[in-house]
Amino acid sequence: MRIEFKRLTEIDPAEIIALMNNSLVRRQMPLLTGDFDENSCNQFIGTKEGLWKEHGYGPWAFVIDDEFAGWGGLQAESGEADLALVLHPNYWGVGKTLYKKIINRAFGEMNLQSVTVLFPPSRTRVKGLLRLGSEEDKELTIGNERFIRYRLKRH
Question: How far apart are CA 52 and CA 87, in angstroms?
């Protein structure tokens, strides 16, 4: 399996739109409301590219064996480096591998002291995240939605 981290601008917007409109993906993203169309996609890509310009890091597109699998990585969220992973259901089994690659970059190249992960309370399957060393940190409200923040500290 060949995994590439690319910029979202390198991906056909139609593929991003299809991912973001997938019902199984949307179920995990309470802040994603309404249709995700071409205009939404352009705004999304512009916002994510803006994170790169402002903070020097942001989310990548994940390409696995030449197929767009999803997006994610580190994003600035309330002064923290927050890890996001949004994968097409066909690639959910690759999440742990991507997570480890992102964490290695965060604590290696970027020299961060901790990374956070935000889950809506509806995401009850968190044992894997806890097994990887994250601890529940606190509850937050973002865009009128509740999230539980988990934190992984550098060892």
Answer: 20
Summarize pLDDT for 37-70 with one digit per residue, the tens. Answer: 999 999 999 999 999 999 999 999 999 999 999 9
| Structural domains in the chain plus CATH codes | 3-112 (3.40.630.30)
The whole model's pTM is what?
Answer: 0.89
State the residue for tokens 């690659």.
101
Whole-angstrom distance, CA of residue 118 vs CA of residue 138: 10
CA distance 46 to 104: 26
Own/partner pairs for 5-9, CB < 8 Å, 24+ apart?
Answer: 5/60, 5/61, 5/62, 5/63, 5/73, 5/101, 6/60, 6/61, 6/62, 6/63, 7/49, 7/52, 7/60, 7/61, 8/44, 8/45, 8/48, 8/49, 8/59, 8/60, 8/61, 8/71, 9/45, 9/49
